[in-house]
Amino acid sequence: MTHLPSARRRVTLADIARACAVSNATVSLVLGGSPLVSRTTRERVQKEIVRQGYVYNRSAANLRRKVSTSVALVINTLSNPFVAEFAAGVDEALAEAGHVLLLGSSGESIERQRAVLSSLLEHTPAGVILTPAEGTVAADLEPVVGLHTPLLLFNRRVPDSHWTYLGADNIAGARLATEHLLAQGHTRIAFFGGHRNSSSCRERIEGYGAALAAAGIAPEPGWIVECPPTRIQAATATAALFVRDPAPTAAVAYNDAVALGLMIGLRTRNLLPGRDFAITGFDDIPEAAATVPALTTLASAPRALGRQAVSLLLADDASPQNPPRHLITPVQLMPRDSSLTYASASAPSTGARATGRKSATKGTKTT
């Protein structure tokens, strides 16, 4: 006689075994794809699993086997296309490695980040990949993550941390973008968007400032405009670029979302992006090449970074004695109309419409 479990409780492996008149071990072998089970028994168990709606408890299995087949990814925002591309790369690499992705978002809240990490760690993942919320310090993570769970920090550094870090070359990239604008004849160049309590923003401001200093230009007050790194916030903050006269003629935007928001803000002031004001972004999200004008930006290959993050994390999990690593990956300048049209209109003989790629670094740096 078949015994149906109560609809008010979770279907267990024992329920399937009882209904099929087999042992719990046999059901476990079927779930694991073992060839030791006969075809007839395997098919009967599989049909019963479907009929009862049994859901495999991966966390419990991991505890029994003392291994984990999941990896937690906690990102700072769900709305940034760069982060979405990175997460896609993580998911692809995990699937190839036979792992599953546990995803959470902090929404730039340190408190929410702590809660999400605590919840995901209950599933005993093999490790955690974290894009830290703005302002995160090591003391925010250590009590939650502990000493034995591999943790990889992506894109943003955490002061005094002892974990592996992976990020794009923010300093060299922003310097390259600023040098590109200087080469188009701009001398009044702003840095627009982001917050300085984010390490990636600080590093990009550092690269921007270094390029101006090398050109003998001292940034004026108001040339650095901070705002949340979203399209809407950037559009709203555009007015801050024009409170002084003369105003900047170009801006190095913190990222592509900020650059696209700046384009919206410029149009509300009857200024055409690219023609009346030059802009560069950072990340090279898919929309960057398709927008009008096409956005000059720094390509950082976020999907490839996601795959690299998984490789590093699983290596740390397999060899916990390895010291933390610090890896910086190169970015490439992608010159497009958002920065080249202005120069072409003002000085067509400068050859500013060259479209060749320039690399910000020659290869991955490891320290």
What's the gist of this structure?
With 367 residues, the chain is α/β, with parallel strands linked by helices.
What secondary-structure arrangement, pairings included, does this model have?
Blueprint: H1 13-20, H2 24-31, H3 39-52, H4 58-65, E1 70-75, H5 81-96, E2 100-105, H6 110-121, E3 128-130, H7 138-145, E4 151-154, E5 164-168, H8 170-183, E6 189-192, H9 199-214, E7 224-225, H10 231-237, E8 250-253, H11 256-268, E9 278-280, H12 286-290, E10 297-299, H13 302-318, E11 326-329, E12 332-334, H14 337-346, E13 358-359, E14 365-366
Parallel strand pairs: 1-2, 1-3, 3-4, 4-5, 5-11, 6-7, 6-8, 8-9
Antiparallel strand pairs: 10-12, 11-14, 12-13
Structure classification = alpha/beta
Bin the helical content: 40-55%
The rounded Rg comes to 26 Å
Domain module tally: 3
CATH C-level class of the largest domain is: Alpha Beta
Instruction: Examine the secondary-structure arrangement and name the CATH architecture of the largest domain.
Output: 3-Layer(aba) Sandwich
**What is the overall number of helices?**
14
E-strand count: 14
The mean pLDDT is 86
Indicate the CATH topology of the largest domain: Rossmann fold
Shape descriptor reads: elongated
Instruction: Give the distance, in angstroms, between the N- and C-terminal Cα atoms.
Output: 65 Å
Largest sheet: 7 strands, mixed
Q: How are helices and strands ordered from N to C?
A: HHHHEHEHEHEEHEHEHEHEHEHEEHEE
Which stretches are poorly predicted, pLDDT < 50 over at least 5 residues?
A: 1-8, 344-359
Q: Give the strand content.
A: 5-15%
**Adjacency order of strands in the biggest sheet:** 2-1-3-4-5-11-14
- Assign the CATH superfamily of the largest domain: Response regulator
